[in-house]
Amino acid sequence: MKVINYKIQITSWIFLISLSLIPYSSFAGGFQVNLQGQKQTGMGHTGTGLLLDGSSIFFNPGAMCFIDSLHMINVGGSFIFPRVEYLEPTPGTYTAQMNHNVDTPFSLYFVYKRKKEDRINFGLGVYTPFGSLEQWPSDWKGQFLLRQIDLKAIFIQPTVSYKVTDKIGIGVGLVYSINTFSLEQGIPVQDASGNYGQASLSGSANAFGYNAGIYFKPNNKFSVGLDYRSSVKVKMTNGTANFTVPSALKDSFPNTTFSSTLTLPSTTTLGFGYVVNEKLKLALDINYVGWSVYDTLAFNFAKNTTLLKNVHSPRDYKNVFIYRIGAQYQLNQKVFVRCGAYFDSSPAPDGYITPETPDANKIGVTAGASWRISKKFNMDFSFLYIQSMKRFNTNIETKFSGTFQEKAVVPGIGIEYLF
């Protein structure tokens, strides 16, 4: 029986590694973190069709050339307070909650124009679109699927934007992504002291992609933008897998390395902006995320045994839409307020839900404000509340069943400096 359990757990370990390499989040499908601008977050994370600040480096590089300031810096950060609850299938009454923790995604954007009359702007963005820190109690019922996962991803994006006419701008940015992760997972075998074994995995992978956009503003009232963030092929080599097991099983679970190649999905966004009057602005963004590229999972270990084999498993993720709306209202010369909402469809089909990605359809509600301290210095504030639908699932590989539900509170703060 213990050997069978080991075979099952190896499959789940591989599954966890794959999810660590494919940064989704509990805030979009999987480990994706949509917090790339404080003003935009306050408006439902819209910004492809409405120019707000230097965060257009991320939302639509084509809009960046319409920034008039010679130099602009936007720096911001958010504090994610997630809550995830698990309930075992009826008639069971066992429940567990993920340990409380705080994730801190950040963004930094710098926009430069040589002369005010120039049609070309240059920019640099450094932001964290992917990441997750999740810790479950070490003795919870799903410890053999996950105890802890820590994923960090930083994107560095040099960008250029050109104003083709006074109404049309185009832009493109090269993305260099830096990704690291680690995870811990229990192994269902006990040593002489009664302690369960543990798998500890870690690795890093860097990759390239691009971000391209076009921005069209036919008049002072209406604007529209189209942005495409490419898929990114992540190639991991020399990831480490270390196993703590009784000495009698060490030969079956040797410490080893592994390699894998996975494709991160593209995102296409169509956005609209409308200026109702001098005080009120509205925005609508529609994201289309190409999750269907994640159809197969394959891993190769440097050392194989009868229990530790290479994996080639089918996956069936689907492309999904995210619908976002937002509004900004200027109260006076110094204060702006914002609100927004979005609906995010889950790309994960039934049978592929796990404790580190208990994914389900989600609704987000946002609010925000800006304080214009001076002509050159502003402060931005945002707030996001996310609630997922309850979702029951039985994982087809591990047979782990239960109902998961997520929610999160995400305050954020940023500064903007013009010079």
What's the number of structural domains? 1
Architecture in CATH? Beta Barrel
Helix content: under 10%
Poorly predicted spans: 1-27
Mean pLDDT: 87
Strand/helix succession: HHHEEEEEEEEEEEEEEEEEEEEEE
CATH superfamily: Outer membrane protein transport protein (OMPP1/FadL/TodX)
Structural class: mainly beta
CATH names the topology as Porin
How many strands appear in the DSSP assignment?
22
The first-level CATH class is given as: Mainly Beta
Can you list the strand order of the major beta sheet? Answer: 1-4-5-7-8-9-10-13-14-17-18-19-20-22
Topology record:
Blueprint: H1 2-21, H2 38-42, H3 56-59, E1 71-78, E2 81-87, E3 95-97, E4 106-112, E5 120-127, E6 131-135, E7 148-163, E8 168-190, E9 196-216, E10 222-229, E11 232-244, E12 256-264, E13 267-275, E14 280-289, E15 296-301, E16 311-314, E17 320-330, E18 335-344, E19 362-372, E20 377-388, E21 391-394, E22 401-418
Antiparallel strand pairs: 1-4, 1-22, 2-3, 2-22, 4-5, 5-7, 6-7, 7-8, 8-9, 9-10, 9-11, 10-13, 11-12, 12-15, 13-14, 14-17, 15-16, 17-18, 18-19, 19-20, 20-22, 21-22
Question: Your description of this structure?
Answer:
With 419 residues, the protein is mainly beta. It has a single domain (2-418), classed as Porin. 7% of the residues lie in helices and 53% in strands. The chain has three helices and 22 strands. The chain has helices at 2-21, 38-42, 56-59, and strands at residues 71-78, 81-87, 95-97, 106-112, 120-127, 131-135, 148-163, 168-190, 196-216, 222-229, 232-244, 256-264, 267-275, 280-289, 296-301, 311-314, 320-330, 335-344, 362-372, 377-388, 391-394, 401-418. It has a 14-stranded antiparallel beta barrel with strand order 1-4-5-7-8-9-10-13-14-17-18-19-20-22. The chain is elongated. The N and C termini lie far apart (68 Å).
